[in-house]
């Protein structure tokens, strides 16, 4: 097989895979996790069911791939926000705000399927990366004098990430803003707080 | 059946039930949720397996009853702490500290069984009661000027309870103390913070 042809096939496969995940994202947004079926995805992508099964063995595999892509997109977005923001204190605030926003949209998935998605290794690895990422921001902000130094950075990171989970129960942007301000108040050094 | 006799039976049944839950608590503490079996409980309580089955149909039912008792004991303990503490600000701090302590000991249960226990209605009801209980303390402390008033009490309560969940990952009492202080700093009015 000439190289170009195999590349064409690979590109095509990637495009179909992405289209499947896009259709899945739209179905989850409209009907929730349980509203996703093989037939509906095949229909929305415009391919036959038999073709879809060549890409994914079942709905669970599709949801898992969709969820992994979601997580990767969120982490990439947080990295971009960090790199676009100037001071250490503002970087921390901007990243926490973006994470709260994503958590709020994420909401609580329905039952068993959500448990299945969240029990994956990918989620555990992403959580570890997120924790390390936020901890770096906390360390930098502490070095810049914007975060308290009487509590170790790893404990402050746990505090931030757990407190941010409150965003799941908040859907009003103003409430999210108040949550971030409350969390940041907790982080501040006592002489600045 | 004379009244006294039926009372004696009821008291006996309660005593056996409590002994079963005590044995379960000891087994969970030593071997985790998955280390609890009908045979071992019967042996530890000193009753036959057939008798045990007259009280509980299976291990799942026993674990559920044990978990409900645990939750009720924790809530009762929090109420006692509230009633023994003088000022509104100290009451909030003492209750949050006790809750963090309980959460830290609780730790993360192992997998599926924990999911089963936590999905129960009893847990949802207890969580609602806890939220209402903490919110009252937040409202009182805000009225006393010890908690910020620029964020609604229900949002501050969500913040507290989520941030307190960080205690699950902390096992050192000093770290728990720092978590509570960080959370309380977040709650403080800006002119006092």
From TrEMBL, chains A, B:
SUPFAM superfamilies for the chain: Homeodomain-like, Tetracyclin repressor-like, C-terminal domain
Database matches in InterPro entries: Homeodomain-like_sf, HTH-type_TetR-like_transc_reg, HTH_TetR, Tet_transcr_reg_TetR-rel_C_sf, TetR_SbtR-like_C
Residue intervals of the HTH tetR-type domain: 14-74
Pfam families associated with the record: TetR_C_43 (PF21597), TetR_N (PF00440)
DNA-binding region: 37-56
Keywords associated with the record: DNA-binding
DNA-binding keyword on record: yes
Domain of life of the source: Bacteria
Keyword Zinc-finger assigned: no
UniProt protein name: HTH tetR-type domain-containing protein
Organism per entry: Actinoallomurus vinaceus
């Amino acid at each position: 097989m000439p190289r170009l042809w195999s590349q064409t096939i690979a590109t095509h496969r990637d495009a179909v895979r992405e289209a499947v995940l896009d259709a899945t994202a739209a179905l989850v947004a409209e009907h929730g996790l349980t509203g996703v079926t093989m037939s509906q995805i095949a229909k929305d992508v415009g391919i036959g069911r038999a073709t879809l099964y060549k890409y994914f063995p079942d709905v669970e595999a599709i949801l898992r791939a969709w969820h992994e892509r979601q997580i990767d997109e969120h982490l990439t977005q947080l990295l971009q926000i960090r790199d676009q923001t100037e001071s250490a204190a503002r970087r921390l605030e901007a990243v926490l705000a973006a994470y709260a926003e994503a958590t709020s949209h994420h909401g609580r998935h329905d039952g068993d399927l959500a448990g299945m998605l969240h029990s994956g290794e990918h989620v555990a690895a992403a959580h570890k990366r997120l924790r390390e990422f936020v901890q770096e921001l906390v360390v930098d902000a502490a070095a810049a004098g914007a975060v308290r130094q009487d509590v170790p950075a790893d404990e402050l990171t746990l505090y931030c990430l757990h407190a941010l989970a409150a965003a799941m129960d908040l859907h009003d942007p103003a409430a999210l803003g108040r949550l971030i301000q409350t969390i940041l108040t907790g982080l501040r050094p006592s002489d600045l707080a």
